[in-house]
Amino acid sequence: MQAFSQQQLFELGDGYNPAMQRGRKAEADAPMFGKRLAELRKERGMTQQELADALGITRDLVGHYERRSNNPNLDFVLKVAELFGTGIDELLGLAEEPKRKPGPSPRVARLAESIAKLPKAKQAVILDMVEGAIGKQAS
User: Fold this and answer.
1) pLDDT per 10-residue tile (average), the chain, 139 residues
2) How far apart are CA 43 and CA 35, in angstroms?
């Protein structure tokens, strides 16, 4: 048996091309649950890693549920519904139209909560920066 280097294998067409993108293209559309999971995660300004940390699972498993899992287990569905504060029917795509809460986006709300925990002096600096960025004078 003859040994080949990676370069030789690539030249023969049997090797991995380092310039290739990581991962592979989806062979089919994501299942309804996966689409809703990704949509709700993005609406709340969360990354897959942040969702994984909140659920106590790996990021790879979140990716699996978002792209490939046709049959998520009930425990996972219940955890996600509780975390997102939504009904199972909405999460599974059975609700006619998802209900949207009025008010700031979840990301803005989380940032506001974090700012509220800072000392007053730091809050004032941040508020001055935000007000300056949106073009309003401090009151």
Assistant:
1) 54 50 57 85 90 92 86 87 86 67 77 91 91 71
2) 12
Spatial distance between the Cα atoms of 119 and 65, rounded to a whole number of angstroms: 40
Contact (Cβ atoms closer than 8 angstroms) between residue 135 and residue 74: no
Q: Which residue reads 């280097």 in tokens?
A: 5
Q: Domain spans of the chain?
A: 1-101, 103-139
Pick the CATH number of 1-101 from 3.20.20.10, 2.60.120.10, 1.10.260.40, 2.60.40.3580: 1.10.260.40
Residue 27 sits at φ, ψ, to 5 deg, of -80, -25
Cβ count within 10 A of residue 128: 11
**d(C-alpha 30, C-alpha 90), whole Å:** 17
